[in-house]
Structures
1.
Amino acid sequence: MEIMRPMEIENKSFEIISRELGDRVLDKNCEPVIKRVIHTTADFEYADSLVFSEGVIEKSVEILKAGACIVTDTQMAMAGINKAAVARCGCEVMCFMSNSEVAEQALAEGTTRAAISMRKAAEIEKPLVIVVGNAPTALIELNNLINEDKVKPKLIVGVPVGFVNVVESKELIMKQNIPSIVARGRKGGSNVAAAIVNALLYMASPRDINQ
Amino acid sequence: MEIMRPMEIENKSFEIISRELGDRVLDKNCEPVIKRVIHTTADFEYADSLVFSEGVIEKSVEILKAGACIVTDTQMAMAGINKAAVARCGCEVMCFMSNSEVAEQALAEGTTRAAISMRKAAEIEKPLVIVVGNAPTALIELNNLINEDKVKPKLIVGVPVGFVNVVESKELIMKQNIPSIVARGRKGGSNVAAAIVNALLYMASPRDINQ
């Protein structure tokens, strides 16, 4: 098998994805996000399950270009976000999951570290992008914090995965009047979260071909 | 919605997965791995696509208990592997993807960093577990290195995802006489790779309930 350059592989993958999507019409603005998620998962269900709030792509590009603080609910999602693209946009990425105070507080309250880490995020005063790829408890806590006027993210990427409260937590976020990208249903994941953020970052600041 | 403790959520998720698998009979040894991958992806296709070489679970548990060097093809897979479980088994985890020499060599040779990082892994003299969740080029290079007698991993977790050479690269690895767990077809990912490794680590050394 011939080994190709990374960008050649990516371009060929996107061609295959476009071909297999066939004559399906995707929203032009949302298309790069949908295709990148399919590229990351090889799962075409995302063409149906990703839900975009009105104008979210244009708003996201603007937010990222202005430099936002991106907070993820897992180290994995943080690891998957392209750091060169983050730097080009003047953004920063954080995750509080390995913070020892967060772990202690979660244990004391009988909740998850992900939920507590959303409270830590709410204390940040910069424009916030909240990225949840794993824990529905993070989305539920975020929803509570929004209802209590304790935080107002500029963008929510809500794609936790799983079987307990996952579907419901995403429906809560979609009802908020905040720009959001959500994967309806059980599916999602840290890889999907990172793919969505990367697609938006690449729209905000195109990549060098060697990266 | 009630927020539950992490282990309660996980236990309830596994109950739902077992129920939805219905009367399907899974190999008892492989079951914890299959269920953890479904837990991570909410994708039941993995009950069909995961291919286990003969005796791979018993062999993996033995290898991990003896302390192995686990090398991943992405920072994301490394981030997803439970570090407490790694430490309990006396293992270590490495990833060479952010190594600047690896990047330079990949650019010079017109190949991927993932392929070059497999050559770095081949230089390690400890018992090796190779974990590929993203790049088929890593699996192809690994296959070449095995054929050239330059490396002989104790275990290969081969679950790259995508559209170009992914299916083929996994078939190559399954033909090697090396213990392997592979996700046949296009699907896989860093999250799937980490889930498989974690399932094996938890079998090798059971978790503290609070972790």
2.
Amino acid sequence: MTTVKDIGEQGLLAKLQRFCPPEIIGDDAAVLVTAPDQSLVVTTDVLVDGVHFSNLTTSPEDAGWRAAAANLSDLAAMGAFPLGIAVGLGLPGDLSVNWVESLYQGMTECLQKYNTPIVGGDVVRSPVTTLAITAFGQVHPSQIIRRSAAVVGDAIVVTGVHGASHAGLQLLLHPELGQNLSDEQKTALIGAHQRPQPRLDVLPILEKIITSPMSIAGMDSSDGLADAVIQICRASSVGAVLEFREISLPTAFNNWLTPEQALQYALYGGEDFELVLCLPQKSASAFVKHLGEGAAIVGRITPGSTILLHDEQKKFPDQVLTLSQGFQHFKS
Amino acid sequence: MTTVKDIGEQGLLAKLQRFCPPEIIGDDAAVLVTAPDQSLVVTTDVLVDGVHFSNLTTSPEDAGWRAAAANLSDLAAMGAFPLGIAVGLGLPGDLSVNWVESLYQGMTECLQKYNTPIVGGDVVRSPVTTLAITAFGQVHPSQIIRRSAAVVGDAIVVTGVHGASHAGLQLLLHPELGQNLSDEQKTALIGAHQRPQPRLDVLPILEKIITSPMSIAGMDSSDGLADAVIQICRASSVGAVLEFREISLPTAFNNWLTPEQALQYALYGGEDFELVLCLPQKSASAFVKHLGEGAAIVGRITPGSTILLHDEQKKFPDQVLTLSQGFQHFKS
């Protein structure tokens, strides 16, 4: 096994340069062209071995894909198209060079779908493998999506199903689960966890639907659907009602989980990287029709500050959603 | 002592928000406005406790200042004015909150001089304190400074003295050194190490001098003057002659170091964060006159690929500069 120490920083950089466009290599910084009427959007994630990923449960390719996807999702959540990412790496000397190349392979596989280059970064020695990604994108100022822009009466739209990523993780951790699922269903759920798709494809559809200037509120559901709705409501000083039956779930859940379990996965599981958007009812209906499977209006923005989970069929009592519920279920 | 674990990630973020402009807080990403005719410039540094800084030799304020200064210097080296920095932090739970606030204090003290905001970032748990900074700036495409743009006949300009930072470090590590220096001289050298100044002030002067379009080559001297000249020559496929007597040194060196030692500090010491620029002789002379103390033409770009250190007074024989000499002197 060739280790990072064997080839040194310069040797490693030389190997990693094939993942970057050649024109950006070799100066103190990378130069990118932005469109003249756009704002710059910047987001950073730090991921640490043993805390955010682990060789025990995640291949380096998947760790790379997920890191890139999470950052692109943050850009999508602002309405921004990606320009590039910078990658900072802290690596132990005894790490295999193969591992690092596989990490980059996974990152570029995700980025290529969105024509996003790795525009440089830094590689240093560290006792613990650390990955710091900064993604930058651009958005026309009138099309920025903000958490604080929700208004009473807005429909709450999800761009796809929730709970799939958490279900996939459970299947990976406990292979004895999901006996009733077909192999295809298992593969799809595990894929949702290992290779989540940032919903940048939603932005051109949104642009087409929204013909007059309007503020759209939203964020991504990386920390769960409940967290997204709660954060938007807090930032906008509004409340919300979510309709139990409208929250779209993977069909595989029918053969596996109770309705209560399924709902917990969807609300608190996290890492689905869908967008949760608030916009006027009429635009929301048109928008959902143009989106793929799982897109739905799942509730509406209300006055006050309460976020209520409501069951139209009254089989389940109304429930007030709070962030601490998510921690109770999965985080402790 | 209040630790990071005591107040949690949310508590720490709340404390750190006072270092960021309020309008950029609370969304998935920060939004920045760029000027319409400018290119975006991006640079990343990762710094790890025990590798790049240490509580034993560096206060958290100085570590923060130096990290910010290094990134701003990379922007200056590209000819770019800073727009903001994103800060990714990995922190052990038992780290004191005071330490983190002091780090941010040092960063903002450096950034404030250049009206540069911290525009967000990420704070996560890590077994080792890790600081990942990504700085972005903007530059008019015609004013980008590149390593690869040096041409035969160009003058090589340094924007200030070299060797001061390394001398300051030596005084910190070995207080018995520099007996002949005055307290003011010691303070100045130590200050050069602890609080280096990125040379963003050079850019408006350069803009004023350069009235017709011309390519300017350059980089910063963060890894030493020799490294900067060698990197520029490599990227531009040219050679260079450096004049021994023209390399500007701190005057304090006269009372302390032999000429040979002083030269080693200047060539290989590093972390002076001056700019090393190559431009036509006439422009170079005018440019140097507008710069402060220590700015000088230290050599010229030649055909071939040899980088020669020449002593006009012939007291020292000609010497070919290579990167490995730097490693021999200080890095082993």
3.
Amino acid sequence: MSSQSQSQSRWATRRAEKHRRLARVSSIADGMILPTDRIVDVLQSLIAPGDRVVVEGNNQKQADFLSRSLAKVDPSVVHDLHLIIPSVSRAEHLDLFERGIAKKLDFAYAGAQSLRISQFLQDGILEIGAIHTYIELYARLYVDLTPNVVLIAGFKADRDGNLYTGPSTEDTPALVEAAAFRDGIVIAQVNEIVDDPKDLPRVDIPGSWIDFVVQSDKPFFIEPLFTRDPRLVTPIQVLMAMMAIRGIYERHQVQSLNHGIGFNTAAIELILPTYGEKLGLKGKICRHWTLNPHPTLIPAIETGWVESVHCFGGELGMEAYVSARPDVFFTGRDGSMRSNRAMCQLAGQYAVDMFIGSTLQMDGAGNSSTVTHGRLTGFGGAPNMGHDPHGRRHATPAWLDLLQTDSPLERGRKLVVQMVETFQAGGQPSIVESIDAVEVGRESGMPLAPVMIYGDDVTHVLTEEGIAYLYKARSLEHRKEMIAAVAGVTPVGLASSADKLAALRRDGFVALPEDLGIHRSEATRSLLAAKSVADLVDWSDGLYDPPARFRSW
Amino acid sequence: MSSQSQSQSRWATRRAEKHRRLARVSSIADGMILPTDRIVDVLQSLIAPGDRVVVEGNNQKQADFLSRSLAKVDPSVVHDLHLIIPSVSRAEHLDLFERGIAKKLDFAYAGAQSLRISQFLQDGILEIGAIHTYIELYARLYVDLTPNVVLIAGFKADRDGNLYTGPSTEDTPALVEAAAFRDGIVIAQVNEIVDDPKDLPRVDIPGSWIDFVVQSDKPFFIEPLFTRDPRLVTPIQVLMAMMAIRGIYERHQVQSLNHGIGFNTAAIELILPTYGEKLGLKGKICRHWTLNPHPTLIPAIETGWVESVHCFGGELGMEAYVSARPDVFFTGRDGSMRSNRAMCQLAGQYAVDMFIGSTLQMDGAGNSSTVTHGRLTGFGGAPNMGHDPHGRRHATPAWLDLLQTDSPLERGRKLVVQMVETFQAGGQPSIVESIDAVEVGRESGMPLAPVMIYGDDVTHVLTEEGIAYLYKARSLEHRKEMIAAVAGVTPVGLASSADKLAALRRDGFVALPEDLGIHRSEATRSLLAAKSVADLVDWSDGLYDPPARFRSW
């Protein structure tokens, strides 16, 4: 061995280790194809104790055959894994810790499993690296969390590993690239393996990034998370939607935006073709969108409000509709949608005028969080989109409209709008002295409170009472006054007074519906372009195929 | 035609238009392969007046055969194009405007062409959409700047369009995806077309994203932009590097970082194996890096300081060295580097503790810009990395170390360090009352001054006088006092006094070299682990192959 090749092998330990592991399964694998019924053995051979392992648990798409199989390995062989899971949403994600296979967890979001994460943390069964937003977690895969093994899911693959991820590409490219280019091992579960590469609708990820493909025992699990039944939209939400359109979208000329997934923003989508049309705003506001294919957006699309939608992921039932509207949605040459959470989060951060979402709890300074006691839900994507990106340099009319001085050294601002009804359904106030997240953070030993969106990033608070134009606040005290003025009869709201409200309205810091030319009596469900899921199907020309649970008409 | 398919064709106008154009060149193309000598005809057939056209002008790699060819089309046939070019660096990029082929420009950076852009703008030959950072520009491709045509460059392609971009993948994936999935047309120039797909080293972009491949008349142009000759590092830069290591890296436990491309940060790289070693800091600081493969990083890599480097792009001459160090760099299965500017900018924004760079001009409040009169250089990537990302939620020791209160609602901060010698080589002060960018912005009719990094994002200013710990500032006035205290005999510095300096040092707001245990006499070039490019080649075991212009030893 020459001194140069000796020196090189010293610098290729990851590659050597990868080849060593691949060799262990060469007799089991048929080229790149792993036998479904040997997957537990294979994982045991390919994964070593202490490995950093990415498991594709996305917001929607789950590499669940692989995670279920990983939970079956022998903990005396594979243990102390450091799992990296964008969205911890499967029971087996936590079983891995209970069985001693995994020890440490880095994640961005946990839905149904948030309670168990919290318990395991208390019981010392699990240790947390950090809780991230989605995009931070991807970013760290290229810095200090480079994975040894990545387990992902796709619809189809050919025998060379070329992968069709289907409409729900989501996080997959960002997860795979980090391992494929640092001598990690990438295993893809797919619903179907095709013999002829021409039978792949398209290639979303090249085969040379993938090490192994395995056909899963059943199709990967996927959940419809972005479907809101219009029947559940309340008149108060219609009122708030009207205020949003007049007092924010129209006023600041919002052209590009991200909507949250709550009923508040669904209401906005549903009154664009009625109330928005009446105001003559079509083509003037909200032309470009970054969000999943919300069924409630169908009427606005059909009436020509929407020029483009780029998606984080897909939505069950929307596949045929999206395919039939390629002028609006991003689709491949095969006709099916292409989503990409990393690029869409980037677009939602840097390329849109506004983020608008609902929150459950906000303090008097505008800090909000969906975290509640006993649940470590994580951050997901909202903090990334719901902040003012100081790295932005290009200007748009909405961004410039928030300037407060003539100084050439002042920056424009992204609109970050929080919609919140002053009381929750159960009668608890939503606007409170201190958000639960502060105490949860303390209890869980987190270095800081898990705040979803910080008050200093919020530009507008919209309640059923009115809109507080926080970006105009001259001080923290001033910001608090504005929030109190629209906080109704919550404890925070009771600190305000009729005189203060009158002054804030006069000076343009707060607007009530009447200041915006909105009659509360107009705010009825009759403004909704679709009043039920069946109406959405009609609007879609029968292309939208709602999942069973929404077929209650 | 059924009503559903009628309705569908109404929603597939982009696709229909694409197919109409593709049909126009079907007799010229051999499958996906375009004949080199017919490229001007082909571009004339595929591009229509008013199109949004992305031209891959990257920081380094240039789709120059395609841009030169585009400049030769008949302006009576193809005109009024809206060009989107990340880095405007080729003469023909501007010729396109002079010839009337293009009218509007959106870009992120302009090097050698910045003077001409400025002139063309004044003369009304060119209109500017906006000036962006790289990552904002990519993001807008998915929102309101979706391209009709994308012209890119790779090393090799097969006849199915599968693309090997080589070590300099850079912007290509982000540019291609935006067109490939919204019925745009993607044309790739390559240095070589291989008949057998197996002759591709690897696939960086799948063929199903590409419409046409053309072999260029000569290999694409690529420039070494990140090579700094150690011979030009001055003793003052060594002193500042020592201060950075002791007063910032060590103090805040900086684990992951991005270095700018100036000589100041090259000096830091070069004294890690000497000064850093002496301080016993190896393995304790700067283990993970996001930057191009700087040759001046070689000694630190060889002595074991560097665990990982993820790269925006490549660097000419570093190919073999990078290939031989896969434990450190991101490389493909073929052994060559994979870079990715979008992912690296993401990592540089969200996943690292610190950005540290040099600036040419800074005002007393810490605002800085490299923009000077008569040149519209744009922003490039610095503002994205050189700000505190308010969307970040995960904590690291360095990020938490900048907390100023015990409030659970305070956020940690990214370190944004500006290194600036108080006077430029020509004797002009670098720290000034007002940066030129303010006037340039006004003259060019920009809505705001083109500030590269804003003072409120800067956490540390490091001059040859000392370090100002700006993150501790209690007010804008306080921040200005700290900067003045390290601004030497510049007009800004003369506003300070010995008393003020003493007070700031006593309270830990400012540190001089002696406060950090640094003797100015130690700051000599003898601390540089490599004193010349020849030394870097030696360190690399002969693997680094510097471009001719750096072979002056």
4.
Amino acid sequence: MPGTILLNVSASFRLRFPRQARSPLPVKPTLLTIPTPQPHWASLQADIEAYLKQTIPIKDPLEVYEPMHRLVFAAPRTAAPALCLAACELVGGQRCQAMDAAAALLLNLANAHAHEEIGQGEGSNIALLTGDGIVPFGFELLARGAGPGSPERVMRVIIEISRAVGSGGLIDSLHMKKSVDGEVESVKRVVEKGEGGLHACGAACGAVLGGGSEEEIERLRKFGFHVGMMRGMAQRALNNEDVEEHRNLALKELHLFKDTDLGIISTFLNFY
Amino acid sequence: MPGTILLNVSASFRLRFPRQARSPLPVKPTLLTIPTPQPHWASLQADIEAYLKQTIPIKDPLEVYEPMHRLVFAAPRTAAPALCLAACELVGGQRCQAMDAAAALLLNLANAHAHEEIGQGEGSNIALLTGDGIVPFGFELLARGAGPGSPERVMRVIIEISRAVGSGGLIDSLHMKKSVDGEVESVKRVVEKGEGGLHACGAACGAVLGGGSEEEIERLRKFGFHVGMMRGMAQRALNNEDVEEHRNLALKELHLFKDTDLGIISTFLNFY
């Protein structure tokens, strides 16, 4: 299950996977003959969480910061923030260059989750306020982390994230979810604006921050979109054919990177 | 009442007020012999609202955008966004340079207001989601508006606004408000983190975007803080002496700008 196996694999352990142009199924762990941990996207997730643990201060007033920690780490995990790091590395960037963007995405998603629970009568007033606090904090991280020469990239990423999590993106998805009639087509639209858009955003932001070309950015955006669709639809136990179709479409977008190490990025196509 | 008289005064009408170094009370409108409207900070507020009306799209899905408009324009007005424009002009900038920052501040405050109502059991789920949508939109406006050469200033402003509205700022104030015991000192702390910090932020951001020097930025930040304290305390009908003290402290900070047109900025010290 994503989010439960949190391996912290150092870059030196990265394995070179055989290309999987025709088979969308990745090499199974049992085929590996060496006992090193497989570099899985969950290891990127673990990096982001470690960064956030260190970055969100535990200070006075504790009634503000303690729930902030709880809310951030209690939210269900999606692969979108980790995809941001993977895309950055795929275009030749360093993982750390995309860390603030990944953290900002995670914070925005944690807020959306907390507020969704409140909408369902489950959350508390504290969660309401706390959620409100972590969204600007995400943008602050991004702005703070902008090194000399990179503000244009950071600016672009702020716009990307705002659109993906705001109206036109995740907010539309959450609105639609309320009135969804169970029809496959309308569930698809919810997933498109939700998981699809969020993973597309994560991948595109990573590629921007890693210094990718416009073509690389757009390919990775599409890869992310299909990864999000695939994961979102599988989660809702939708038609397995649709899931497979998105997996294949995602794989196609990786063709541009065929001479690069596709180890981690291809694990986004697995459900283990 | 601030926010009700929305005069749209063009810059050419700006009046040069006699300096009021000793009397904190501004010249009363009755002393004016010409029938031109007094340039009041409410005119800046009107500019920000006109900008937001034009900027927030009315498009599908209407169930997202229509409440967004309603929420933004229904929130009670504070002077902090208008102060952002006034500070920008005071240091020699153009009003338009600070418009996105003023709009972002207003959007953040509208969200806080909507969520406060939800916390009190008055708001709807729609308001919850809508509030969540307008916060990233504010940051998007800021990032989008960063012209060539100005991203560093915009980055700084994003950090300033995030801190003022997030944990450590407004969020702390809203938390404290819940447990306030009616003691003047604890109400003061609520106002410090709330109105004080928000007006300080507005003024500092305006000065940054208008190209002010570090000294000008810090003076205007203090001016803003005292304006916020003064207005926040007056609103809570706190000790009038405290209100007057903050008004005088605010006035002192304007000394640096004594050779500049203090027309509009001095109207923040009035309650009409």
